[in-house]
Amino acid sequence: MKITAITPYLMQAGAPGETAWSAAGMSSAGSRHWCFVKVETDTGVHGIGEGSGWPKVVATAIADLATLLIGQDARDIDRLWHRMFVAQMGHGRTGVVGAGAIGAIDMALWDLNAKALGVPLHRLLGGRFRDRVRAYVHASSVETARDAVAQGFTAVKAGNPRDAQAKVAALRTALGPGIDIAVDLHGPPWLTAPDAIRLARALEPHDLLFLEEPVAPEDLDGLRRVRAATGLPLAAGERLSLLWGFRTLIGEGLVDIVQPDTGRVGGLTQLRKIAALAEAHFIQVAPHSGTLGPVAEFAAIHFLASIPNALIHERFLTDWPGRQAILTHSLETVDGHMLVPDRPGLGTDLLLDEIARHPPGTNIAADSAKHRGSYEAGTADEGLYTQPRRARAAFFTPE
């Protein structure tokens, strides 16, 4: 089964209705970019995948990597992964762009191999522990959270360190103890370790499902300090790539939940290895999926069905309507759970004509009220990565 073609497809997608941080949409630009790939073989069987990280750049990397794989046996998934990885070493350490390109092709290889055998993807991943996967949705407002509960979801996620205390208190009062609440503190602007500790302690009475990225991903010393100071379950990892990127988080037990991004981390080949390493350290897995397109979400559900330490899946309660229009099949949601597809491969395919109707545009965060609103008053123009609390007492005094 020789590879004959590898083609990337880039598109611009609209923003969802609400995120964990606010109801203003996904990104500062009000849109997302998705990068898909199709891998074809001489048998007529093809597979599809998705890569994120920086989709416009990932698409270029996919086209470059394709030259390595034409004529190779599509069944040698792990060998081809290493072939792509080694080929990038001349450019320095592989980050989320390189891993996203490898991962998109890797995902497509898993899809086409499962299709060739006529089995759903989770069968190749070792079979399934469960036939449905629990999901949580973003809920910045009480109204959205109540809508989610009415639709059967039993977990929500809120965010934004500027109003996390008040937001979580309102959600817990409205939802009661029967609904899980997670909190996402990621930036920019990131919190310093002392501020993250203070906020974590303030949130402890609400018994969070997890506290996500309390400090910048580079600040491992800060994360160690937060870890030692709070009893809340900690989660991190959405910005990391490859198995080695997770080695410190998992090996030192700095988190209770790892959050590899299905489209950034280097494909299902890497996801399986990260999950196994996490299992050996009694750490759970809850992949980052919020910004991803629908192909990577299919992969996430197969993956979560196949591992013992799966915690929960991330998604939006309401998303851009065009999300489902680019696929032949959509995922099904029942009582706050995602049903595991039973069709061959991932269980869906791309509608290329529909993708072509959404050409790519700008793919970086731009200045907006939402972006500026995450900063302390008067500091947005400074472009800070980590936010010093110049009015710290006011910050920690709920309104």
Automatic annotation (TrEMBL):
UniProt-recorded name of the protein: Mandelate racemase/muconate lactonizing enzyme family protein
Superkingdom, natural source: Bacteria
Key word Lyase present: yes
MF GO annotations: lyase activity; magnesium ion binding
Keyword presence, Lyase: yes
GO biological process, one term: amino acid catabolic process
PANTHER family recorded: D-GALACTONATE DEHYDRATASE, D-GALACTONATE DEHYDRATASE-RELATED
Positions of the Mandelate racemase/muconate lactonizing enzyme C-terminal domain: 138-233
Classification via SUPFAM superfamilies: Enolase C-terminal domain-like (SSF51604), Enolase N-terminal domain-like (SSF54826)
Keyword terms, alphabetized: Lyase
Stretch list, region Disordered: 361-382
